[in-house]
């Protein structure tokens, strides 16, 4: 890219950015900064600065630690599972198949189905008296209270995968199709095995896509809160108590300080994650270029 | 990407989408969605429970409990007035000095008359002595009678004089018979009062009283002997006073507006006002001050309360509209139901219901439409 | 992969077909059950949420998962569409909330994306990172300050309290920037030679080329905001303004029969939209994701 073309666009850029930037700073940036400030004050109307007190109190609070742990656990396990599954699916779908279009459409369809529309289905499947337990009973196993046990997070993970696998699969499919065929052919000729080809060609050339998929998957892993909320309410089983539950409940109990401190911490974690990802991605790009 | 989307499929989808939208629009127009919007909207309040507060606030004038009218005893003209209205006086203090010159003149005349009589007496005595010397029995007798007569005259005159002297001493001025305050002064210098009292003196030791007209609902909850402490003076010195009720008299029922039937929501005032007399003990009062009285009584038992606004009246009874809910899975249908109620108590804001409602039951406060009827469908 | 035999292709197709069917199951289940009679639904699913232990010695009782109804009925639909005064009103409420958001965010997002993708200015990448960060934040992070701001603006209980943050969401900027950075400069260059300004380049060249991206974004936004539950729950207390998602969130617990019908109707616009725009959608998503 030639630099001359891009230099001195500041004014034009400002015009193009203005509408978005005004609203964005009013409705996102400013609230965030207010929140940041609030997290360092005590709850009194005057609001004197108390430093890190809110954070210390927050980190001492058991429910916050539990919520943070659960969120981390869910994102940490759910996202890799989702990516692995959708990558597998993409690799499989990237072959010549019968009904390929139909299969692809079916897998993508859950993406557009509103959560509230299918909550009942999940309920019927995973309730104490639900179908899954009915099948368990039929094969002679004791039933499990899915939503009230250690299993609950897996159930939520199933919903998460169900909803998001299509999106990731599409992204990976595009990534796969952008890899030149002859890379594989050359590798085959040189006697590389399937696994070798997958690791050293597919994964490497998918890495930019991977970055994007990872971002989207993380966003969507936060959105799973809605399913949990609709299925289990404000105070779900311990394992399902996510940061969003925590913040939601802090909001309704008007505990602004804890909420904003939690929000800031969450922001910090996501910032770390994103900058880490960016660094890795840049290195990869240099490597592939 | 292979192009799977043939134009015929796209056309089909477009048709399907169109049909779907048409179905929704049609149902919106034909179904209950719009019809429901046309229903009168009602505003609800839930029946509370508690006691009913009967507040009263009014003003009254402090009246002395006992006062004495000082009249001009002799009908003399007023010479000097020593006090003003509002002056506190002590027992024995002179109040008005009267013009006694006429009586004094009369006294002088009488005294002169007496002197004359005394002189003529000595003449009569010398006459008698002469007659006695002359031995003329007849003459002697005449002279004796004359002396006796003159003696009687003399004593009469003396009594007159004494009377006048006493009058002069007593009626020259009026004095305060007790400690008190001059509340009214009618006397004017140079005139004799014509029958009406020259001044009115209140007896501060006996205390003061106020009288006020209190609505029946509040008055019914008052008792004789009850202490009231929400009395305050109006004016610069807004002191707090205390008083006790000494008398409650029902005044004649007011003319009740009998044409106030229908759904106006106005309560026909059934209870007449009462005149309540309250005694105030306060030595600094003089009488005539304006005071503000606030009374706030709670009904004895707790009952279900409904805003007056929600209560309607017909010829015979009171009723409210409650809400009948047909709960369907997709939101509820509501109907206004006429529910007769018995009003046990009420003040100007709420009415206490003794029968017909249960606590927290929702009643219709008012509706967007002018009137409601039993069974009418509404929306909330 | 030419060496693939017909048999293995068939087997793989069948396996993936089965998987696809499993993916479709919740959707198909909802749609099919919406034609079930109330009585049958009660019979099948009444045990949901009841924690009672199985009677001693007796058979444990379970809900009866049933895909095909015994009797077909459209009563539930009649209930929802004609008898209920609320459903359609809330449906239009949803539309009225979502359409401005989709239109606004797509437009404003594209404008900003143009600046991020095709212009160079000081702090561009840092600013873009801020947008990305915001996009990643769950809604709850800025809940309190947002609440305060809406309160200050007097927008509580007003549709704008939902619409405004929607319009200025960062996702549109992110997605369109990703998409636009693949559009070659050469095309812009040609237009520039002809003397076109940035406005014309954006409107005449970039936007038409970004059509798949716009379609994908619109669909994604539509789905996302059609789905929202938490925002209206907090910002729209007035029942007359609430969108359908809240209605469904409440209905699912009480009346399952009409719940299925309402759910099916609720997902229908999304499914139709998706099927209609699928090829654009797929292309848009793919192009936005190929390179970071």
Descriptive overview:
- The complex is a heterotrimer of chains A (289), B (380) and C (292).
- Chain A is mostly helical and 289 residues long.
- Helix content of chain A is 75%, strand content 0%.
- With 380 residues, chain B is of the alpha+beta class.
- Among the domains of chain B are: 38-54 and 302-378, conserved putative lor/sdh protein from methanococcus maripaludis s2 fold, CATH 2.40.420.20; 67-199, no CATH class.
- Chain C is mainly alpha-helical.
- Chain C has 2 domains: 31-73, no CATH class; 90-288, MetI-like fold (Orthogonal Bundle), CATH 1.10.3720.10.
- Chain C is built from 14 helices and no strands.
- In chain C, helix 1 (6-33) crosses helix 14, helix 4 crosses helix 8 and helix 9 (185-193) packs antiparallel against helix 10 (198-209).
- The longest helix of chain C has 35 residues, at 256-290.
- Chain C is globular.
- The chains are: A mainly alpha (289), B alpha+beta (380), C mainly alpha (292).
- Chains in contact: A-C, B-C.
- At the A-C interface, helix 1, helix 2, helix 4, helix 5 and helix 6 of A face helix 1, helix 4, helix 5, helix 6 and helix 7 of C.
Present the secondary structure layout.
The complex is a heterotrimer of chains A (289), B (380) and C (292).
Chain A (H helix, E strand, L loop, with lengths): L2 H4 L3 H29 L14 H8 L1 H32 L6 H9 L6 H12 L4 H8 L13 H26 L3 H9 L4 H30 L1 H8 L10 H10 L3 H33 L1
Helix pairs in contact in A: 2-13, 3-13, 4-8, 4-10, 4-12, 5-8, 6-11, 8-10, 10-13, 12-13
Chain B lengths: L6 H24 L1 H7 L3 E5 L1 E3 L2 E9 L1 E2 L2 E4 L7 E4 L6 E2 L4 E5 L2 H34 L2 H35 L1 E3 L4 E6 L13 E5 L4 E7 L1 H4 L7 E7 L6 E11 L23 E7 L9 E9 L4 E5 L3 E3 L4 E11 L2 E16 L3 E6 L6 E6 L9 E2 L2
Antiparallel strand pairs in B: 1-22, 2-17, 3-16, 4-12, 5-11, 6-8, 7-10, 8-9, 10-11, 12-15, 13-14, 13-16, 14-15, 17-21, 18-19, 19-20, 20-21, 20-23
Helix pairs in contact in B: 1-2, 3-4
Chain C lengths: L5 H28 L4 H8 L29 H9 L3 H32 L5 H13 L6 H10 L7 H8 L2 H11 L4 H9 L4 H12 L1 H16 L3 H6 L8 H11 L1 H35 L2
Helix pairs in contact in C: 1-14, 3-14, 4-7, 4-8, 4-11, 5-8, 8-11, 8-14, 9-10, 11-14, 13-14
